[in-house]
Design a protein that fits this description.
Largest sheet: 3 strands, mixed
Number of domains: 1
Order of helices and strands: EEEHHHHHHHHH
Structural class: mainly alpha
Number of helices: 9
Helix content: 40-55%
Strand content: 5-15%
Number of strands: 3
Radius of gyration: 17 Å
Distance between the termini: 25 Å
Length: 209
């Protein structure tokens, strides 16, 4: 990420911890960038998922990317603004969908590099969680492919037999770095749409997400 965690007297070195068990709230990970408790890491990753089964290594890697993306986003826009966006049900889609895109993009990159290194066809064709291309309206209001849809060249409505439950994703060609630069000034979906229009991306956002 282009926005690193900066150290200060009140902000010690960013710590990421792995716990070889589940969490009482059935989550894969969490991030509290401003945490000052010396015994608890800022980012916590859990070995067991909500279903009670052990997470695979790609999920653990992706979860770490997801939570660190939250830290980077928090660092970029400030603690107060991030809290307001994340706590508001109408805008939480932005930080969560952004972190979903980061975990998808970085995990795919890592596995594709491994595929090139070891000649693994499976790794070369790897697509983490299938890029959430089977996400549909009403399935999950926060963890969506909103930003993934601006990057990939897949149209999930076409891939799902033209069902109107799925986004009609005609946008492609954006990048995580471009989206991160846009995200700096985004506080709600209307601002996101306006920023994307300035860069000729994402004209469908107001119609579906």
């Amino acid at each position: 990420m282009s926005t690193p965690y900066t150290l200060s007297v009140l902000k010690p070195k960013l710590k990421v911890g792995y716990y070889h068990h589940d969490h009482w709230r059935d989550i894969n990970g969490s991030a509290v960038p401003f945490r000052e408790n010396l015994t608890i890491p800022h980012v916590c990753i859990y070995g067991k998922g909500g279903s009670g089964s052990w997470n695979t290594t790609d999920v653990i890697y992706a979860t770490t990317c997801h939570e660190v993306a939250h830290v980077s986003h928090w660092e970029m826009i400030g603690e107060g603004t991030f809290a307001l966006i994340w706590l508001n049900p109408k805008t939480r889609i932005i930080p969560e969908s952004w972190a979903v895109a980061v975990e998808w993009g970085l995990t795919n990159t890592e596995y594709h590099i491994l595929g090139q290194k070891y000649g693994s066809y499976k790794a070369l064709s790897y697509n983490f969680k299938e890029g959430k291309q089977f996400w549909y309206r009403g399935n999950d209001e926060f963890y969506t492919p909103l930003f993934i849809d601006l990057i990939d060249d897949q149209n999930q409505r076409i891939n799902n037999n033209g069902s109107i439950l799925f986004p009609n994703d005609k946008v492609k060609g954006c990048s995580l770095s471009i989206l991160e630069s846009i995200l700096f000034g985004v506080r709600d979906l209307e601002l996101l749409k306006a920023m994307l229009k300035l860069n000729h991306y994402g004209l469908k956002i107001h119609r579906f997400y």
